[in-house]
């Protein structure tokens, strides 16, 4: 089997995995020629939805447009060599989680798992009183993952300058002042 046939077989298999596990891809997110790694997308979406299921929250759908935006920002952050949130105006109403670590040492389950691990400091109150530490930003990644009104997610990992950079974009954004996550 030549390389292009292997790639098609891999994408078909990943699409089957998405369907077989009940992971939905947002209908609005289809884009011709999308080159996303469906296996990676399925793994990241599963991490998000497993935590949401634990709380009886609706599943998120994968959005390849958000994934593309996340990849663009991850590439920019890789060039900068540091994490900075994109300006809200650029994000068009989306939320954003960022992560960076030494290249090749972290599976995506660990990366996304670090967002979810913030739950240990979470208090179920209205933002900003949501953290046992007194700083809402200590649980802000977690609350974005489980924000009830968030419906879609797209994430991308970019490797450059010795680091892996993960960016996840969420629509609509969570972490709304004065509201509870769920």
Automatic annotation (TrEMBL):
Keywords: Signal
InterPro entries membership: Allrgn_V5/Tpx1_CS, CAP_dom, CAP_sf, CRISP-related, V5_allergen-like
Domain SCP, first and last residues per copy: 39-178
Annotated GO CC locations: extracellular region
The keyword Signal belongs to this UniProt entry's keyword annotation: yes
Pfam families with a match to the protein in the record: CAP
Signal peptide coordinates: 1-26
Name of this protein: SCP-like extracellular
């Amino acid at each position: 089997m030549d390389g292009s046939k292997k790639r098609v077989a891999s994408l078909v298999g990943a699409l089957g995995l998405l369907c077989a596990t009940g992971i939905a891809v947002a209908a609005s997110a289809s884009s011709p020629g999308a080159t996303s790694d469906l296996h990676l997308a399925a793994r990241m979406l599963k991490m998000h939805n497993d935590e949401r299921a634990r709380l009886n929250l609706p599943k998120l759908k994968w959005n390849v447009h958000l994934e593309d935006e996340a990849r663009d920002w991850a590439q920019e952050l890789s060039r900068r060599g540091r994490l900075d949130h994109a300006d809200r105006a650029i994000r068009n109403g989306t939320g954003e989680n960022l992560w960076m670590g030494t290249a090749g040492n972290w599976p995506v389950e660990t990366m996304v798992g670090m967002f979810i691990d913030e739950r240990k400091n979470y208090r179920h109150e209205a933002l900003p009183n949501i953290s046992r530490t007194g700083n809402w930003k200590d649980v802000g990644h977690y609350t974005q993952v489980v924000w009830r009104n968030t419906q879609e997610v797209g994430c991308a990992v970019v490797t450059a300058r010795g680091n892996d950079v993960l960016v996840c974009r969420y629509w609509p954004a969570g972490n709304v002042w004065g509201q509870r996550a769920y």
